[in-house]
Structure formats: C-alpha cells, structure tokens
Amino acid sequence: MPAPLILGIDLGTTYSLAAVMTPAGPAVIRDAAGIALVPSVIAFQDDGRVVVGQAARAGAVANPLRTVYSVKRLMGRGIEEIQEDLRHLAYPVVSGKGGTACVTVGGREMTPQELSAMILREVKARAEAALGQPVTAAVITVPAYFDDSQRQATRDAGAIAGLDVRRIVNEPTAAALAYGLDRKDEATIAVYDLGGGTFDVSILHVAGGVFQVLSTDGDTHLGGDDLDMEIIDLITADIRRQFGQHLTFPPATRQALRDMAEAAKIRLSTEPAAAVEVDLGDGRTFQRTITRQEFEAAAAKWIDHTIEHCRAALAAAHLKPQQIDQVVMVGGCTRIPLVLRCVEEFFGRRPYTALNPDEVVALGAAVQAGILAGVQRDTLLLDVTPLSLGIETLGGATGKLIMRHSTVPCQATETFTTYVDGQTSVDIHVLQGERELARDCRSLGSFKLRGIPPMPAGMPRIEVTFLIDANGILNVSARELRSGKEASVQIVPAHGLTRDEVTRMVKESYAHAREDLTAHRLIDLRNEAGRILAAIDKALANLPGVLSAAQRAALDVAVADLKAKMEGSDGDALYAAMKAANDAAGPLTQAQMDEVLKKTAVGKKLEEF
Amino acid sequence: MAKDPQTLPAKCRQCSKPLSDVAVCDFCHSINPAAAGMDYFTLLGLPRQFELDEKVLHDRFLALSRAVHPDYHGSDAADAQVLSLQMSAAVNDAYRTLKSPALRAAYLLELVGGKSSAQDKSVPEGFLDTMMMMQEEVHDAKTSGHAAELERLRSVLTTQHDGLMHRIAGLFGQLQDAAACDAIRNDLLGEIRQQLNAVSYVTKLLEQAG
C-alpha cells in the first residue's frame, strides 16, 4: 500500500504554497507555468464568486473593499489587540462574537478561520491538479511564536477547508528540517525568519537526524507589511505636504499605495533607488524617488527589534552569538541587504542564503509530513512551546504551570477545590505569557470544570491536567480524586471557535462549494446559450425562407424563452430552454448541413475535372 | 523510607517477547504501559544517584524519544496514541528534571524519602542573614544603576550557588555509603533539603540581579 499523501502547507501572511515528500526528497508544488506562490488574497466578486491568489491580488485596486489580504494577522486575535493593523487594512474588520476580529464583505461576516480556509482550499486544489490525486491530509506551518489561540485557529481553518490537519509545525523549525535534512555533522543553528507579517528566531541543535529546538523568540506582528507601511508613510507625508494636509486616501488609492510600496521594497533590494508614481485622481500625479538609504533609515527600527529577539533567544538557550555555527535565513524580507548586514553583524558570520527563502518552510512542512507518513523514519523533531502556560490565581497573579521552551509534548497537573458547599463547577482562567499579572498575559479562555460531585466546601480534589501536544496546542482534562469521577471540561476560548462552530463551518463550506459549483455551471451554460443564439441568427440570415411560418414562429418563441432564462439563475431551466431552442432550430440546422454537403460535393466534382 | 524500585514486567504485553528495555519493546516497538508510572531514573535507564553522565542522559533521552514520540504513533489505535502522547510528555519532563542539577537533586531527594520544600522550609544556620544582606546590596546596586557592582554580586551569588550544589553532590555520595543506618540517612536527607532550599533562594536572587 502506498504511504498516505500528506501535503505540507506554508500558510503565509502574503503568500502560501505547498510541498510534498517524494522519494527524491521534498518538492514544491508548481502550476503549469512553474509558479509555486499563491498570494494569500481573497476577492469576493460581484457575481458571488470567490477568487483566491494572483487574480484576486490583481483586482485589489479596483475592488478594495471586497479584497481580503493579510488575514493571518487576524487569526485568533481580539479586535482590541489588532488596532494598529486596522490602519493598514482597506477592507472592513469588525468586532465579532466576544470581541474576536472578523471581516465583513458584502454584508457577510466571516471569521479569519473561514477566510484562511479559502486560501487553503485553493492551495489544496492546485496540489490536487498537479499531483493528479485527491489530498485530504496536511501539515500546516505557523510562526513559532503563535500562541494557543492562533494555532487552534489555523487548525480550524484546515478543518473548514476539508483537510485533516495532521500537525501544526513551527515555521523556523520546518526551515531547519529542510536545511539540515542531509547534514550528518553536528551543528547549532539559528533560523532567522522574517516573513510578510511575523518574525521568528529559533535556536536548534542539529545532529544525525535529530532536530532539537533549544529556544524560540519573536513577534507575531512584525514583518514585511511593516516595512511596506514605512514606505507608505514616507510617501503619504510627502503627498500631503505637496497637495494639502487634509488629503484623505480612498480605499482604492490605499490599495495602490500598498502594491507600490511592496514593489519599491523589492526593487530596493537590488537597486540603489526606486521611482514611485501615485495617481491621485483629478489629473494629479505624485512622483518621487526613494533611495535605499531612505528606506534603510525607516526600516532600521524594525530590524533592530528582530536583533533584540535574537539576543533573547540566545540568552534563553544559554549561548553566545559566536557559538552559532550557521544562521539560516527564511522569508522574503531576508533578501533585504540591511537585514543581511544586521544579522551578519550580530552573529559575526555570513548568513546562509543558499535556500530559496520563500520555499524552504513549505519544503520543511513536507519533510514533517514525510515523518508522519512513516517515509522519513530516521528524523526526530523535538520542538518547544514558545510561551509559558499559567492560570490566574487569587489577586490576578499568574501561576505558571509549564515554563516556556519546554519540549513538547509536555504536561502539568494542578489540584483545585471548591469554595462553597455543594459547588459542582469550578472556573479556571488559563493564560499564556511571561508576565506576572494575569491581565498582562494572553487569555486563552476560561475552562469550566463541571460534574463535580456535591461535597462540603474544600473537600473535592479536582486534578486538572494541562497537556501541550506536539502541535503546541493545549488539551485539558480533569478528574475528581475523591470520587475518581472524570469531570468534564468546557472550554470557552477567548478568541477562537468552539467545536460546534467548526463543525458548522465545515458543513457550510461544503454548501458553499456546491454554490460555487452552481455558479460555475451557470456561467458555462450561459456561454453555451450565447453560442446557440449566435448560430441561429447566422443560419436565419444565410438561409432565409427555409422555415415555414409555423416553424419560424415556434423558433422565435424558443429563442425569446432562452434569452429570458439566460437572465435568470436557474441552471436547469436554462438547460431546458437551450434544448428547446436547439430542437426548434432543427429544420434550420438540417438545411444548413445539406447546404454544406452540397458545397463539399460541388467542390469534389470540380476537383475531379 | 526509600521507595522500592518498581519491578518490571518480564514480557511485552503486545507481543509477549521478553522485554530488554523498560519503556519500549525491542521487537514490536509498542510502548510498555507500565512505563507511564516509572520514576525518571528507571524510565531513562539510569542508576538512581545524583552523579550523572550528561552525554549518556542525552543519548538515552533521544533513543527513548524516537520510540515514544507521537510523530511515530500517528497511525496507532487511539489508546496507543494517548499513551504515546503521555509517555512523550513524561520523557521530556524526565530529561528536563534530570538535566538540571538542582531539579535532579530535589527529585532524587523525594524519591529516596526526603521531605519536599513544602514540608520542610528550613535553611542552613546563618544563611538567611547572609541572604538578607545580599538582597539589600542587590537592591541598592539596581536602584543606583551600578552595573559593575551588580556584576560583582552576580559573580558572588554564582559562586555561592555552585558551592551549595557541590556540597549537595557530596551529601548524596555520603547518603549512598550510609544506606544501612537510618539515623545517619535521615540527618543527611534533612541537610540536603536545607541546602536545596538555600539554592532556591540564591537562584531567585540571581534572577533579580539579572
């Protein structure tokens, strides 16, 4: 039996792509044109169709309010946590249930999970087309510094996309897997991953197929998008100076600015300067040249932040910069000369750039998929949890149960009791983070322990087990020790989906898939109907007088009906009308065929002479 | 009293072959369910003592991880997957605990019948006075931003920490020699507890001075 196919997917802020394990090693999935990167952009078109990828990105300027991008920044977050992002997003973000960030397009409110699922479905479909077989399972990568809510959200997105998510793997760890697969020697490596929206640095020990993560640090809100924003701020300040401080930018202009800033950033990696031009409408155009020096001055503070994270990761691993044998660069932003310079300066060695920084994470995800499928037996991956896990104790303090950088899976148990006679449930507030006060940590939600046998206050001993699995996702179970009864744990995630919501969305996604299919069929049928009408018109013009008055009247009725059905959205009715028109045009078609045969016969005869 | 070392099942429950390894069957690679309750020394196949070869610990950790990690049990039955997850968590915690001398000492102390830090909070004679003095010095150096003084204090505290750990290692050595005499054993266990409590104080102060 062939090993089950598990797709490795890099679900990025700006681009997504997939790779698969082959007998020759991991390989990136490409379309017929050789393109691997799918822009993580979703466009909701006026006809109800959803377009994902390059086409969606290309239409972003024309359709700014219905084009969703950078959705990864919203995953598992509350609206109050992403205020800074909202400034950059052209599409409307609203506060959904429990303050969770949601997106509204065309009056429809969608969770970031559902939107990410659309991207995943596109990546999946491309892989299926390229591989010629269905894909049902995947490994999806996330920034190492993603917390439990963000990981859960990613896993839920996979489920909504119809994927059995076999593992959530950290992006820098995946990169290390792709990098170190063929290395036999022992090395301590640092992976510097500056992506579209997130920054991670991980320190790993690699030896003989063992990949042991020692520490990880980062910022889930620091990436190429921020550098683009620096360029936009630079330009908009100039525009306002030139055309008036009161100038506001409509969504289409903001979108155009975004595209232009990204293009300028990329250009500045190879050129000393980049020219930009912005159409402000009313015949006003703004032109300017941005020099690399200007860009670097604006970008420096962000790059400095990344170096601070490198310092923290090294300190946590009890290592000094000179003890790092190799620095592996990941993410499109590591092509920026300033980034390379700062990293080289900090680690005192030239970073390793031989791997394609856009593709290495997906390749690593494919390696992890290979391990899970049992085709990559000699590789052992030991990752860590990026944040400490704790519970809120009396007085709003954080009681840490699992320390950050603990190798996963890991678990801790804590015993709780009741405060009131006959109390049958206990609430636990679970937190992630390093701060002393609960309010300074990320709230994962409240866990309600139910089914505690009624006893005098303080008598029950409820042992709660907090287990962080290999995905870095928390699982909680509870048992009342005196009765030995399994207590049920009801989880109310702070910013996430309940199991019921995920199930509903999976169902809805199938329904939407049918809707999409219906929309597709309708478009095809309309096109076909258009061809039929054109053919009838042509035949009527070429062969007048072929039809009897009754036949002509019947045809006119059928054509009118077909035109009416083309305006509607009932595919079956349209199909029936097409068939009726075809039938009514039967004598005409027959006459046309005869005419063609006659001509052909004439032609032959002429040739024979 | 010291707990008895757990007795091992002689045969694998899955394939009934003799078990040469405590946690995982050599023949069918199934995880021995009894391993979930083993103490960390037994689990990693190490002698129950404070002295430890870090290289051996690391090698045993990797070998055991290869055997129990959920990555390799994804297609197992549901209960075997749960066992893999729990065993993997136990192996990771065992490694973390035994790798750190202070954690290893505390774990071993309780394993051989010593009191926990919650049961016995006492510290060596005169230690608290020294600590209070040091605490004040750290506080002063921090508030006045005196970097060189802070560095000196860190170095003093590190020396103190290492000295305490060295003493604890010696006490564990004596404990092995005194296996036959309960009175001496109990004295030694109490002393190790005091030294370990002192280590916690010094570690906390080092963090503050960091």
Written overview of the protein:
The complex is a heterodimer of chains A (609) and B (210). Chain A has 609 residues and is an alpha+beta fold. Chain A has 3 domains: 6-223 and 299-382, Nucleotidyltransferase, domain 5 (2-Layer Sandwich), CATH 3.30.420.40; 389-497, Substrate Binding Domain Of DNAk, Chain A, domain 1; 501-608, Up-down Bundle (Substrate Binding Domain Of Dnak, Chain:A, Domain 2), CATH 1.20.1270. Chain A has 14 helices and 27 strands. In chain A, helix 5 (171-180) crosses helix 10 and helix 11 runs antiparallel to helix 12. The longest helix of chain A is centred in the C-terminal third of the chain and has 44 residues, at 499-542. The radius of gyration of chain A is 30 Å and the shape is globular. Mean pLDDT of chain A is 88; it is low at 603-609. Chain B has 2 domains: 1-99, DnaJ domain (Helix Hairpins, Orthogonal Bundle); 127-209. Chain B is built from 7 helices and no strands. Chain B is mostly helical. Chain B starts with 39 loop residues before the first helix and ends with a helix. Classes of the chains: A alpha+beta (609), B mainly alpha (210).
Oligomeric nature of the chains: heterodimer
Q: How many individual β-strands of chain A?
A: 27
- What's the end-to-end separation of chain B, in Å? 39 Å
Helices of chain A, by number, come to: 14
Global Rg of chain B:
21 Å
* Architecture (CATH level 2) name of the largest domain in chain A: 2-Layer Sandwich
Largest interface: A-B, 19 and 17 residues
What key attributes describe this structure?
heterodimer; A: Nucleotidyltransferase, domain 5; Substrate Binding Domain Of DNAk, Chain A, domain 1; Substrate Binding Domain Of Dnak, Chain:A, Domain 2; 6-stranded mixed sheet; 14 helices; disordered C terminus; B: 210 residues; mainly alpha; 2 domains
